[in-house]
Specification:
about 250 residues, Spore Coat Polysaccharide Biosynthesis Protein SpsA, Chain A, 11 strands, about 20% strand
Length: about 250
C-alpha cells in the first residue's frame, strides 16, 4: 500500500502514456506535464485534493509538481483493457484500500477537464447524498457515433440493443466526469469494472466502449439516483472558459 493518506474529499484522474490513444489517434509522450497542467492548476487554486495516477511521469516531474493539493501515484498499466477502461479498475482498487478515509469522490478526464467550483460543498451535492452525479452532452443517446461506439457491447450484452432503443431520445451521459459519496462510487465502480472485464476485454473495434458501458449501466441500473448536467458540468465542447457557475468544465 502506498504511504499517501487521502482526505475525505478527492478528485481523481488517470494519465496513461506509451499506449495508442484511439480518441486522439496518437500515442501520448511519456513525460509531458503540459497535458495535465490545467487540471492540476484548477485543483490547487481551489485548495482541493487531487490524485493523479500515471504510468510514465519521471521522478523529477512528480517532485517538481507535487504539492499538498495534488499527489502523483504511479501505477502499472495492464492491457488488454484500453486506458479509458483500465482507469476504472485503478479507481476501484484505490477506493477499496482507502474507503475508511474517503467520504466523497469525483473521477474525471484529465486532458480536457478543469475544476471550476468545489463540488463537495455545493448545496445540491450535500442535499442528495445517495446520488451519482455525472456529466452530459447536448446529444441524444441515439447519436450515430454512439451507435458505432456500442457495436461491440451490443454483440456481447443480451439487452444492450433494447437499452439503445429504449433510451435513444435520452440525453447522452458523459463518463468524463462523475462522482458521489463513497458508498455510491464503490458500488458503481464495482459494477462498471465487472461489466468491462466481462464484456469489453476482447474489444477489437476502433471504439473504447467506455461511453457505451457508462450510459448502459447508469440508465438501466441507477436511473433513480442519477443527476446529470448543470451544475455538474458546463456544456460539453462549448469551451465556456468564462463560466464559473458549474463544478467542472469539460472542454
Amino acid at each position: 500500500m502506498d504511504p499517501f493518506q487521502p482526505g475525505p474529499n478527492l478528485i481523481m484522474a488517470c494519465h496513461f502514456t506509451g499506449i495508442y490513444d484511439v480518441n486522439r489517434s496518437t500515442t501520448l509522450p511519456d513525460d509531458d506535464f503540459s497535458l495535465v497542467q490545467d487540471w492540476v492548476d484548477s485543483i490547487e487554486v481551489l485548495g482541493l485534493q487531487g490524485v493523479l495516477f500515471h504510468n510514465n511521469f519521471s521522478t523529477e516531474t512528480c517532485a517538481r509538481h507535487q504539492s499538498r493539493h495534488v499527489q502523483f501515484l504511479e501505477v502499472a498499466y495492464h492491457p488488454p483493457l484500453n486506458p479509458n477502461v483500465f482507469r476504472y479498475l485503478v479507481y476501484r482498487d484505490f477506493l477499496a484500500q482507502h474507503a475508511a478515509l474517503v467520504q466523497n469522490v469525483f473521477v474525471t478526464d484529465v486532458g480536457d477537464v478543469v475544476v471550476c467550483q468545489n463540488p463537495f460543498v455545493a448545496p445540491l451535492f450535500l442535499e442528495k447524498p445517495g446520488t451519482l452525479f455525472c456529466g452530459d452532452e447536448p446529444k441524444l443517446l441515439g447519436d450515430a457515433w454512439m451507435l458505432d461506439h456500442g457495436a461491440h457491447l451490443r454483440s456481447k450484452i443480451a439487452d444492450y440493443g433494447a437499452f439503445e432503443a429504449d433510451f435513444k431520445d435520452a440525453t447522452l451521459l458523459n463518463c468524463g466526469v462523475f462522482g458521489g459519496n463513497i458508498a455510491v462510487m464503490q458500488s458503481f465502480l464495482a459494477a462498471l469494472c465487472t461489466l468491462h472485464t466481462t464484456y469489453n476485454v476482447d474489444n477489437k473495434t476502433a471504439y473504447t466502449g467506455d461511453m457505451g458501458a457508462f450510459n448502459y449501466l447508469v440508465r438501466t441500473k441507477y436511473p433513480a439516483s442519477m443527476w446529470h448536467g448543470a451544475p455538474v458540468n458546463t456544456v460539453f465542447k462549448n469551451y465556456e472558459t468564462a463560466r464559473r457557475d458549474c463544478w467542472f468544465r469539460h472542454k
